[in-house]
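2024-03-11 09:14:02 DEBUG pipeline.ingest accepted 1 chain
2024-03-11 09:14:02 DEBUG pipeline.ingest length=217
2024-03-11 09:14:03 DEBUG pipeline.predict start
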Amino acid sequence: AEQLTAVRELLGETMRLTADLTPQRADPAHPARWPLTTVGELARGGALLLRTGGNGGHARVPVLTDHDVLSGTAPSGTLPESDDEAVLTEPGDVVVPVLGGGSMARVIDAATGGAVLGRNLVLLRPDPAALDPWFLAGFLRGTANNRQASSYASTATRLDVRRLQLPRLPLDEQRRYGERFRTLDEFERALRHTGRLGEQLVRGMYDGLTDGTVAPD
């Protein structure tokens, strides 16, 4: 019962935080017609570095998996050691899963930096003098953007990260969008945390009611 009370209180605090982070009403606007570039063009021009994951190397550190990226959780995987050099993440990197058909891109923070890049992930390391990482990650999450850069098979959808598009904007304008995308990410993480706490509370209530430690009234 004490644990349930603690979970309930934490859930209440998280729900209040989530409400505070709820995005403001968006004013309607006409679709923008920006000049576009692609991740492949940016990589060729030196505005970002593109690396693929899957090699464990000899690094004895946690591995960031595609599931970790999709669920917003800490690195949880492992890879067998190999003679190929492992790709290590750094804060400010943008990591994109290439399988599954979801629209996801995760900006690496200080807590996740240093993890090995896992299988089916592509790492983009933007030059901070040319690209804002949150701007990059935000535009890579667009549904239409992912659709035009994906190939579809009978059993899986695969994303060609090099074909993903983003607008050519000055760095100051990128940062304006990047800040909005960053606050959306914070809201999304709060929603996930709220959902996990809610599931924990519901499971605890079922267990308590069925083992007699929680009264029905």
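2024-03-11 09:14:41 DEBUG pipeline.report The CA atoms of residues 97 and 121 lie 5 Å apart.
2024-03-11 09:14:41 DEBUG pipeline.predict end
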